[in-house]
């Protein structure tokens, strides 16, 4: 992630620990990923065993980690900078 915006030079991290709040957004994304994956497994793969749930949900969360990391910060920035 850039320290400053490439186009308008806005400094993203105004103070140390500015992005701790993004963890809550990331948590929301993670819960959504878990629920959607579990829903798909239950309804379209005829309710597999618990180990299949755990492995599949872990893999999906791992694959979507870059999305989760970046977009939780972006959404957090929009939430705290309303200007
Ligand atoms: Zn900008």
If you had to describe this structure to a student in words, what would you say it looks like?
Helices cover 64% and strands 0% of the residues. With 83 residues, it is mainly α. Helix 1 packs across helix 2. The radius of gyration is 17 Å and the shape is elongated. The two termini are 22 Å apart. The structure holds zinc ion. Zinc ion binds at residues 5, 7-8, 10.
Number of strand segments: 0
Shape: elongated
Name the poorly predicted regions. Answer: none
Radius of gyration: 17 Å
Would you spell out the secondary-structure blueprint of this structure?
Blueprint: H1 22-44, H2 50-63, H3 65-80
Bound molecules: zinc ion.
Summarize the structure.
The chain is mainly alpha-helical and 83 residues long. Helix content is 64%, strand content 0%.
Task: Based on the model shown, name its key terms.
elongated; binds zinc ion
